Amino acid sequence: MTTVLPDNSALLEEATKAASIATFQGGNVPQINEMPERRKRKYTIISADDHLVEPPNLFDGRLSAKYGDRAPKLVDMDDGSQVWVLDGQVLSVIAINAVAGQKQDEDLVEPRHFADIREGAYDVHKRVEDMDLDGVYASLCFPSLVGFAGVRLQALPDQKYALDTVKAWNDWHIEEWVGPYPDRFIACQIPWLNDSKIAAEEIHRNAERGFKSVSFPELPGKLGFEPLASDAWDPFWKACEETDTVISVHTGSAGLPVNSEGTMAVATQFGAGYSMIPATEWLFAEMAFKYPNLKIVMTEGGIGWVAAVYDRLDHAEGRRETRRIWDHDIRPAEVFRRNFWFCTLNDPSAMPQRHRIGLDKIMFEVDYPHADTSWPDTQTRADSLLKDLPKDEADMIAWRNASQLYRHEVPAAIQSDPEAFGQR
Predict the structure, then answer these.
(1) Cα dihedral sign, 271-249-381-29
(2) How many angstroms separate the CA atoms of 299 and 87, rounded?
């Protein structure tokens, strides 16, 4: 495979423009670590989509001594801001959209110093405290610094160093993030995208260590890797199927699949499109036909579009162009129904379509610490979505579907009583 570093310059420039123009000495968001009151719980919740901010010491001691001082590091700048230096690359956005804790009725400030990031974003012990007050039992956390699927590491010129850095990130995630609270976190690895055979070996190795999921870019061909439909990925898909490793496809992990002539404010409204287009690409790439037990999650794209995709698949069935591109006994809609899962952040108009979407394929997401997050009022948002549903259906969306998919057990006491954890 060939790979090029994704051009994040436009996103970085936009995020920089959105940042505070104050002097970046840190501490410009004084309320950032205030602890809200513990919310009353109605639902047990597993979030299938949260994020972590890589702490400054993540790579300390995790790369071979032969690399000297090349380990990724946080650097203080003369203007008081901080940047990450990644083997010569300077990343000025240290925590994209990590704004949890800021007052929602004021302008949100993109942090440029760790003093302006809520501790729960990068300190796992503080994160569990935030989950406890919000009533979230378990969480799957995507990366930030390295890209949602680790893409930023793949194009480093020294490929041996790049692979070792990917492994170091995964080591930290399973040992330092998930390790202290294995009941509270679902381990999600980043893959090696430059060689699917090596990637498959890593899937097997990491499955033995407790990883349940892998974050994978929506459209790898856009980034210079092999396209989704390439047979080159077969060893990877096969490894995921054999280990029951869930493939988590996060919106934005390969850039934005929908171009807009408008501003970022316009672009942020395309959440459904950002997930619908890649989902259709994944379906017709046919990896789920070849590997029928593959599990694919479309993350942070909402669910309102799913019923529309089924309508289109049904409409197109039997048409000549569909028969030409899908020469299988099983219908595309059947594969979509069997192999794909979806996440809801706030889709009230989709609830009446939940059976058409697939009640057992919908999971809840909190999106901590991003601007869309329901924290610290996740229970309120969940209730607005689920209050009119039968309890068994509400439980499926709130936690049971994620528990089954990721093989993450929820103790019986917590299933029946959401107040039964995190008493402090």
Answers:
(1) negative
(2) 30
Q: Where are the domains of the chain?
A: 44-55+118-416
Confidence tier at 259 by pLDDT (50, 70, 90):
low
Strands (E), 105-236: 138-142, 185-186, 188-189, 213-215
Q: Which CATH number fits domain 44-55+118-416: 3.20.20.140, 3.40.50.300, 3.40.50.620, 1.10.579.10?
A: 3.20.20.140
How far, in whole angstroms, is CA 106 from its chain's centroid? 26
Q: What is the pLDDT of residues 154-167, one digit of tens each?
A: 888 899 999 999 99
- Dihedral over alpha carbons 345, 351, 355, 358 (to 10 degrees): -10
DSSP, collapsed to helix, strand or coil, labels residue 366 as coil
The predicted model scores a pTM of: 0.91
Rounded Cα gap, residues 11 and 8, in angstroms: 5
Q: 323-374, pLDDT tens digit by residue?
A: 666 778 899 999 999 999 999 999 999 999 999 999 999 999 999 999 999 9
Cα–Cα distance, 267 to 27 (Å, whole number): 30
